[in-house]
Amino acid sequence: MSSIPLTHILFVSTALFFIGMYGLFTRRNLITMLMSIELILNSVNINFVAFNKYLYPDKLNGVFFSLFIITIAAAEAAVAIAIIINLYRSHRSIDVEETQEMKY
Amino acid sequence: MSLSLLIILPLITALVLLFCNGAKQVRAMALSGAVMQLVLAFILLFEYWQQRTTGNPGIMLFEEDHLWFTPLNIHYHVGVDGISIAMILLTAFVTVAGILVSWSMEKLNKEFFFLLTLLSMGAYGFFISLDLFTLFFFLEVAVIPKFLLIGIWGSGRAAYSAMKLALMLMGGSALVFVGLAGIYFNTQTTGGTHTFDLLQIAQLHIPVEAQKIFFPFAFAGFGVFTALFPFHTWVPDGHSSAPTAASMFLAGISMKLGGYGCLRVATLLMPDAAHYYSGIIILLATIAIIYGAFATMMQTDLKYINAYSSVSHCGFVLLGIGMLTKTAVMGAVMQMVSHGLMTALFFAAIGMLYDRTHTRQVAQLGGLLKVMPFIAAVFVIAGLCSLGLPGLSGFVAEVTVFMGAWQNADTLYRLATILACASIVVTAVYILRAMGKVIMGPLQVEGSGITAQPGALLADAGWNEKIAAGLLIIGILAIGIAPFWLTELITK
Amino acid sequence: MNYSSYIALIPLLPLAGFVLLGLFGQRRFSKSAGILGTLILLAATVLAFYTAYNYFFVSGKVNGVYQPVIALQYTWLQFSPGMSIDMGILLDPASVMMLVVVTFVSLMVHVFSLGYMKGENRFATYYAFLGLFTFSMLGLVLSTNIFQIYIFWELVGVSSFLLIGFYYDRPAAVAAAKKAFIVTRFADLGFLIGILILAFYSGTLDFGTMIQRLTAGDSSQLAQMTGSTFLGISILSWALTLVFMGGAGKSAMFPLHIWLPDAMEGPTPVSALIHAATMVVAGVYLVARLYPIYQLNVSVLQLITWVGAISAFLAAIIACTQTDIKRVLAYSTISQIGYMLFALGVPAYSISSGTGYTASLFHLFTHAFFKSLLFLGAGAVIHFIHTNEMGQMGGLRKLMPLTHLTFLIACLAIAGIPPFAGFFSKEEILMTAWQSNRTIYYIALITSGITAFYMFRLYFCIFWNKPSTHHNDHGEGALNMKLPLALLGVAAVVVGFIPFSQYVPVDGRAKEMTIPISFSIAPVAVALAGIGIAWALYYKENQRPQQLAAAFGGLYNTIRRKFYFDELYLFITKKIIFNGIAKPAAWIDKYVVDGLMNGLGIATTRVSESIKALQSGRVQAYAIYFFGGVIALAVVFIYWWK
Amino acid sequence: MAGDFFILMKHELIITVIIFTLLLLKIGSDLSNKSLLNLVNGLLLLNLAAGFIGNQPGMLFNEMFLTNPLIVLEKNILSLGTLIVSLQSASWLKQHEHVAEFYILLLCTLLGMFFMISAGNLLMFYVGLELSSIPLAAMANFDLGKRKSSEAAMKFIISSAFASGLLLFGISLVYGATGTLTFSEMASHINGSPLHIFAFVLLLAGFGFKISVVPFHLWTADVYEGAPVAVTSWLSVISKGSVLFVFISVLYTVFKPMAATWYNMLFVLSVLTIFTGNLFAIRQNNIKRFLAFSSIAQIGFILVGITGSSQLGTASLVYFVLIYVFSNLAAFGVVALVSALTGREQVSDYKGFYKTNPVLSWVLTIALFSLAGVPPTAGFFGKFFLLLSGAGKGNYVLITIAALNMIISFYYYLRIVKAIFMDANEQPIERLTIPGYPKLAMIICVAGIIVTGLVGYVYDYIHSLSFGF
After folding, report:
1. Which of C148, C160, C168, C575 to mutate to test binding with chain B, by most B CBs within 10 Å of its CB?
2. Which of B457-461, C391-395, D23-27 has the highest mean pLDDT?
3. Which domain holds residue A89?
């Protein structure tokens, strides 16, 4: 039944991880950057689930972990968005390039 | 008596000072504290004398030993031998004198005396501690007051000098720390724990390889404090910017912290390494002596003259230590005491002149003997002591160093000794030039709105200055005329 | 018998005087200081004479030999077991003789100064310094220990510094004082190192022990010292030469003589005491003290001989050209000390008999009297007409008869005309030279001729030459100035008749020293010749001296400029030491060593400035660095640093 | 069992209770700021007091949550810090309209830290970590109007999300490699295989982010500068401290098998951190930013201590954190007061500070000396022991580097002291009257600075609880 080998899945998750990273590094819109981070987290989720299912099917702690990650990610996103909104109030923009007041 | 008093008394004095108000109260308090310290020091001396005469064989006397940090086997362990007592006496003398000369200090005088007292506490603690940790502790305690004293009350590029001094001394203590850590982890007591205890370390033998690694750290670290070439550059700037009392402390006491530390390291902690490196030590010491002396020749500011000459004189201390013969080491200790008193006196005299003439430039002063004979006399005595005139302490100390140094038959050591001897001629040259210009010759005061007329501005020393100078001079004479008590104290 | 009870007082009384007057003099005794000091010294002198009597005639001799006696001795500074500086009192013929000389001359000077220094505003200080000097000098001559002698050596140096610089607001005086101190200090450096060497090899600092150890027949220490060499010269020679260097410095021997003439800036009585009678002969005394050891090393003795001879000769001819009367006397002092030194050294050329030793000390003895007399006389003159310049003097014999008489006596004495004191001692010296080394003898002979010449040039210029332009305003001087002149004058006549070799022989064994009359003819003739020339040139005012000077021209100037020695030294100190060593040292310290320390600080700030771009403020960049760090760590620690 | 539960989770429960009280108050009544502050500080004091009584070691939820005397001590240290911070921020919060929220967020993070510290399991650890970091972002934004504040918050949330992303990736790998999330089981599966190393590096990055180890530190300065002072001090002391506690226990227990590897890593990182922190600190003019970099340098020294990997190391770390709480909070206390009352935060503003405010100057000076490690302040002892434990491994290159870096750090601390005492200033900060709570906080801090060092018992006690290998 398990026809798809683990490596494939890991490949997908790793790809996702780096896509997310790429997005984070390159996008200038804060919301997009947030989404990229979500991608990273999801790649981690895939890892957990995959490891759990393929390597340690007798326990479920991996799956649970991914559940926690999802919820926490949601919370994180909420706070982040709140902050971004507040940022927009003061900066009139959510472009990351606008926020370099503090440096050196 | 309990040695801890030497720490507690200044501490209490300092704390009380914080609650005094009004210049009068403050300085009265500070002075009485200092005097009590002096008395204490003498009591200590006599009790020590008794102990020894009744044949107490211990290396250190009046030991107190409390466990401080159990897991690290760090103790609060104090005790004294003759050397430390000599240094304690020196500290006591200089403290009283320093407080007296800064009697009329207006600016923030509470803080000033507070810091002075703290400084003396640091010195006492350093000289009595037998545990390397406490030693290090007090070594660093003594740094910050200097920084503040120079920075706040200093003249000229005060802040710069203060920073330089603090950083270089910190660097020194950083090196010391590495050395100490190294020693610590190379000690294996019977209990299996490591130890910081000087005496124990002296007993258990640190592996020679380890000594060779860590000796340079410890020695150079302490060397920074006692102006070991090339780490001496804080001395001129620091001394010349510092207020009078601070200069006296700096040159009189805190440079001795370094010398004392070097001595302990070289003789007690890592004798083998000391032998191994003695050539280098002597080389550096000789450079400091000669080159310090010649550099002094070119100085035009009285304080710079004395500062550089301190570099040269402290070279004798290191030379004595480096020679490692019993006599030479004794000479080094005597030189520490003597130089402490002498240079304090010198700075006091310079300070008095400066207070009246508002200049320290040799070129701008002249013939002050006419208007302020007492100060001039003090200046002359300090100068003569500095150039090693018999009957004053400088001669005794230097001669002892030379005799001790000459015991090393090695030609290069002999050469170093001869060069060191030669420096006394150079010393004579620069001292006499300064003296001949400032004290003798036609009366002259320039470069500061003061007219060279005898009168209120160019008055002679006040009572406080007289007492201060008198104290130091008594010390100098006591050593210079009757050195045997000091040698007995040190060697017994 | 036990001396210690009172002998200690001899040096200590002047010290007490110094302390008393030094601390309270200016306030309490501004007037009475002189009397006080003099009385104190009188007491010391009496004691000294009593001691001398006691030693020479009562108890000094033990079965025909004068034994050195250690009157007292305390350990002053213990270096190591057996090696210590002791403070003590050593009585032997030489030291007792010096004791007499020092106290007597010092007393005379004290008395003379009562008049001479009257009204000086630092009168008390002056007497304090005199006390200090007397104390130091006595300590020096009574030393039992080579380091003790060094200590008092330095002390006389400093008291001479203080007294030369007594008129501290005169730049010239200050300069002279500094010069004197520094030059002698330089010489003392040699002395110190010499001591270190001797001490190291002989293992003691005590004279007696040292001499006995080194002179013992099978002395291992001596073997070591002669055996081991440095730069091809035996350690013994090094040690003795260096010690002698100290002596030469104090005794103003060529080439370290430059300080003495300048030292005449001090008050004249001081010159009489320090720079004629006592301190300057310390060098001779030092060599005499270590004479047994010097005898072990011929080469150093020869060195001493030649140094002495050259100094004697050069100083004599320089003296002929000087016009400042005190400087003339200063150079004559150098010349006379030269005599004493080569008298010590010259026996090296023959089978050493003790004659040189005795002769030298004898000359030291007599010289002390007539030279101090000369100086005091000069002082009286200066006091009278307020100038040192010969040119402005003349015809004073009427105005100051006593001074004139005593000065004449002194001149005859120094010129070596019988029966005055100088004659006898000089004869002995010449005799010794004759026996040992003819070259030296002839130099000495010529020098004595020159001496006679310049002394009488001085004499004639002061007392005859042109008629006096000065009217007798305040007389020749009070009794307190006349008395010392008179006493010294008497001394200058009589002391020559003392059979010196009876009392101060080299080894304590009294021996007879006879000089055939025939031998004396030559010296006396030469001396008379010298006087004659002086008479011819200076008895009456005339042009001959100038013509003569012109005739010699360059040579004359060279001599008058003292062979440009001062210039040479100035060049060495200013150009070489200051510009060559001190300046660079100061520069290096300021810009290299200190620069290094500051440079570290500057470098740190530079670096921190240069890396600030890392903190770009752009959150994405942060993330990239973050990830970069992760990757770097992973790579490094997975692939390289296992 | 149930009793156990209440005793073992005492700290967490108390905090939760406080949080809910505040929530209810927020909804139910409209207390004035003043009384609210009094109430909260009172509660925090109670919390602190309660922390000391009736503790016992044990574990819950099959090893998810475990506690022992050391952990209790760590929690107490954090509670103490919390109290001090809240006292200090009183003068700032007085005129702020969202006091309750502030405390709710603050205490949430504290709660998160408690869970994190007693985590026996990566899941619990992760939850705790996030709970302690997400509210912080909100707090960083608490000066709602200020541009800087929101910029700081943004930078913090983005970076922390990214960091926790990497951390999670690492955790997932660890899970993949070991098949367990429980620390105690994990240790047996760890061997220095490349996968483990990679996973460890990711975890290390996660920790490094929180305690701002170079190169994971870049957010620190900006956030510190932008955030309100109270939050900054909280970030710099409490959150760092908590993560350090976990970090060392994870290193010493879970990754013990690959000690050799992480020793070298820490060696590199500590040197990097010390240098970077110092070199940046030299240049700073904003005092908060300056303190940020100085705290980075401090972390470097702490890492040196950790490399000692001995009982001495743990003890010194906990001891140092305690001291660090006092010293750094004392410094921030003064800064907070000044910025709250005058709004001035530049180093140059402090010129001539001593003339106008001697007391505050002394407090600040003592704090700075303690940070610089000058006796007799506690900082000296802290640093001494840290470096000593570092030296225990015999790596004297590291020790020498660290010791010599003390000179640089000394320089910039003295720079402030110089400004305070020696520099002239035409418009210095005017004379300030210190309100009650901040004053109390300062007294506590200074007392702590003096006592903690000189009284050897403190260290002995900590040491007796510590572990190592």
Report:
1. C168
2. D23-27
3. 6-96
Is the peptide bond between C419 and the residue preceding it cis, with omega within 30 degrees of 0?
Answer: yes
Inter-chain touch B69–D460, beta carbons under 8 Å:
yes
* Burial class of residue B191, CB neighbours in 10 A (0-12, 13-18, 19+): exposed
Closest Cβ opposite residue A84 in set D154, D161, D222 = D154
Structural domain contains residue B87: no
Mean residue pLDDT across chain C: 85
d(C-alpha C629, C-alpha D272), whole Å: 11
Alpha helix (H) residue ranges in B54-104: 82-101
Main-chain dihedrals φ then ψ at residue D302, nearest 5 degrees:
-60, -40
Q: Do C618 and A97 touch (CB under 8 A)?
A: yes
Q: What is the pLDDT of residues C511-521, one digit of tens each?
A: 766 777 778 88
Please name the chains neighbouring C, where neighbouring means 3+ C-beta pairs under 8 angstroms. A, B, D
Domain count, chain B: 1
- Cβ of D315 under 8 Å from any chain B Cβ? yes
Q: Is A87 left (phi over 0), alpha (psi -120 to 50) or beta?
A: alpha
Chain D residue with minimum CA distance to B74: D456
CA distance D129 to D152: 19
Its domain, for residue B463, covers 271-492
pLDDT score of C506: 77
Q: Do C621 and D218 touch (CB under 8 A)?
A: yes
**Number of domain units in chain A:** 1
Q: What's the whole-number mean pLDDT along residues C245-268?
A: 88
Mutate to test the interface with C, among B362, B440, B474, B486 (most CBs of C within 10 A): B440
Interface touch B294/C147, C-beta < 8 Å: no
Name the interface residues of C facing A (CB cutoff 8 Å): 612-613, 615-620, 623-624, 627
- The answer to whether the beta carbons of residues D156 and D223 sit under 8 Å apart is yes
| Assigned domain for B230 exists | no
Give the type of residue at B391.
Answer: G
- CATH code for the domain in which residue A45 is found: 1.10.287.3510
Distance CA B152, CA B42 (A): 33
Inter-chain CB proximity B71 and D312 less than 8 Å: yes
A101 domain residue, yes or no: no
Distance (Å) of CA B103 to CA B243, B474, D115, D277? 12, 20, 61, 44
Best residue of A25, A52, A65 to probe chain D, by most D CBs closer than 10 Å: A65
Instruction: Please give the share of chain B, as a percent, with pLDDT higher than 90.
Output: 53
- CB spacing of D459 vs B184 below 8 angstroms: no
Q: Average pLDDT, stretch C146-175?
A: 90
Compute the count of residue pairs across chains A and D with CB atoms less than 8 Å apart. Answer: 121
Mean pLDDT of D242-262: 90
In B204-254, alpha helices (H): 208-225, 234-241, 244-249
- Report the distance separating Cα C416 and Cα C3, nearest Å: 38
Chain A partners within 8 Å of C624 (Cβ): 25
Q: Is the pLDDT of residue C473 over 70?
A: no
Q: For residue range B158-208, what is the model confidence (pLDDT) as tens digits? A: 889 999 999 999 999 999 999 999 999 888 777 778 889 888 888 888 888
Is pLDDT at C507 greater than 80 in this prediction? Answer: no
**Considering the domain boundaries, does residue B330 fall inside one?**
yes
Give phi and psi for C62, each to the nearest 5. -115, 120
Of D145, D162, D226, nearest to A102 by CB-CB distance is: D226
Tokens 């000593």 locate to D388
pTM of the model: 0.91
Separation CA B173–CA D383 (nearest Å): 13
Statement: residue C1 has pLDDT above 50: no
Residue B337, in any domain of the structure: yes
Q: Do B164 and C182 touch (CB under 8 A)?
A: no
Chains that touch D (3 or more CB pairs under 8 A): A, B, C
Tokens of D206: 């996660």
